[in-house]
User: What shape does this take?
Amino acid sequence: MGEGLTRKGTSNAGFAMQYFSDRSLARLRLFYNFWSTPSMKLWLILAVLALALAPLAAPLLAGSHPLTALLIRSFFSRLCHQNAARSFVVEGSPVAVCVRCLGIYCGVALTVLLRLGKIPGRRLLGGALLLNLLDVAAETLHWCGNLTLPRFLLGLALGIGAGAVLFSQQADLAARRSAG
Assistant: This one.
């Protein structure tokens, strides 16, 4: 049997369960090496930035390209409730997502640029989740009204924390390469 990751202490020691073969581990290394090349990093940054800025394009395109604006809104309708009262307004038309979702998308885009580590990202994600839950509970209990700026900032913190956790593998690989 190869040097792949195996589980020791299985019921039959002669046939230890092998999770990854040497061949599949080599494919995983190739995958990570592929995504850590400078051109793939650039594509990843551009893709995340496009996702963060796409909701802002819908109101800007509403007058000149209504079909494109409708397609953008339709795409984001699967991800967000799109309540116009909870969205920023650009040129008289609401953005394609609510302010919290826009903050989350912008936060993930910032994280790709900032490259936070996994530990601070987990702490920020936990704190941001708690604060967002408190915000939802406070509005549900009618303790506060529709506060767009705090909701955007809470979403931004949540996006930065989630992005740090999601992209920490990229940051760890870059740190290892620069150190060694």
Q: What stands out?
A: Residues 1-35 form one domain. Residues 1-6 have pLDDT under 50 and may be disordered. The chain has seven helices and four strands. The first strand starts at residue 6 and ends at 7.
